[in-house]
Amino acid sequence: MIGAKAGRSSERGQGLILAALGMAVLLGFTAMAVDVGLFLHDRRSLQNAADAASLAGVPFLPNNPGAAEAAARQWAANNGINLEEITAVEFADGNTLIRVRVQRDVPAMFARVLGFANFEAHAVAAAQIGSMNGVTGLAPFGVLEGAVQYCSLPPPVGCLSTLKYDVNDTGATIGDLDFDGDGGGANEVNEMIKGGNQNPLCSINEPSPPPGCPTGEGQKPGNSTGEIRDAINWRISQTTSQCDTLGEVVGPDTNSDGRPEIVSQCNPWSKAAADTDGDGGTCDNLPGGIGSCRILAIPVIQGNELPAPSQDVTNVKFALFWLEPFESGKCSGNKCEVRGYFIDAEVSVNGLLGDLDPENTPFVVFKLVE
User: pLDDT tens for residues 269-311?
Assistant: First the structure.
């Protein structure tokens, strides 16, 4: 009996030791789990800050990397990154890409008992600037190359452009375009002026057009004078008072490439403006909403004379056009004169990233690529 009691006592002692060891292991795993969770939270914050920093710097590229680095570092600091935690700001691809590297020592809490004083967290983000490879939100006007005349800002007297629409193509400088190839009547022209094409269009001068992106489109027969007049008047009426002058809409040249940028609050193609129906525009689904609806994006078509309505046209580039109100009686019957200014400016959009080619298109894309 005495031996049996001793055996049970020994077993209880071994059980206590195993329980203690098990508790230590459990506490160790718990400590590691808590600290790893804190580490991952810190790493996500670092990554978000690195993403924001690279996106803050990329609009200044490719010609102003110094300003790009300053903006990236400032934005990182605004997001809680100490300057010594930024290990590198690098540029690549002809200064069209900015890469921000950050590192932080995350102090361990419970894992210190296991000999871990801290964890090293890293994050890398890269953003690139390029031209939009495939343009949506275009107005259904084909503007002849010879009709495009850019003005300095503010536009001098006599620089106003008059784009002429004529059902019989007599002296016309713009033609009705059939983006979707399905024909359709004047109502479709109205909707396209308000919202634009849904499927991307490219130009023959793009250095890297994606497969399946057409560089031309057909023309639309019939008289669209009334619908052109009504849609343009509607766009002008939808523009808010904060964005109804060129001085408010066209901002400074932040990236030192010789071309100013459309300011973000007036940008009708901005990510901040909701395109709820996916047609590339916002003016048709946000009445009186975000951005200046007096800006049109227009295909510039090959040649100095409109081909016959049965023939397709070819896009050579795209342009921005600022709308002015119609002169009395100048848009009626078979003819319409659309007045305004071609704006030699850049506008940022959310779309397919292509090679940077400011001569071909005013649209630039800023994207995270890492």
Answer: 775 555 666 555 667 555 456 678 899 999 999 988 888 888 9
Tokens representing 351? 């779309």
Q: Give the number of other CB atoms < 10 A from CB of residue 87.
A: 13
Q: Is 86 exposed, middle or buried (0-12, 13-18, 19+ CB in 10 A)?
A: buried
For 192, the domain range is 141-360
- Are residues 215 and 318 located together in one domain of the fold? yes
Judging by beta carbons within 10 Å of its beta carbon (0-12, 13-18, 19+), is residue 275 exposed, middle or buried?
buried
The total of structural domains in the chain comes to 2
CB 277 within 8 A of CB 283: no
pLDDT value for 348:
84
**Distance of alpha carbon 162 from alpha carbon 185, whole angstroms:** 24
Token representation of residue 198: 């849904």
In a shared domain, residues 225 and 330: yes
pLDDT for the residue 30: 58
Claim to verify: residue 294 and residue 248 sit in the same structural domain: yes
pTM across the whole model? 0.78
Is 290 found in the same domain as 178? Answer: yes
Q: Are strands 295-301 and 141-144 parallel, antiparallel or unpaired?
A: parallel
Domain membership of residue 367 (yes or no) is no
Nearest to 357 by CA among 57, 135, 92, 72: 135
The angle formed by the CA atoms of residues 321, 165 and 313, to the nearest 5 degrees, is: 80
Model pLDDT, residue 233: 94
Q: Are residues 46 and 183 in the same domain?
A: no
Measured in residues, the chain has a length of 370
Low-confidence residues in the chain, pLDDT < 70: 1-41, 106-119, 271-282, 284-290
How many Cα atoms occupy the beta-carbon half-sphere of 52 within 13 Å? 15
d(CA 6, CA 243): 92
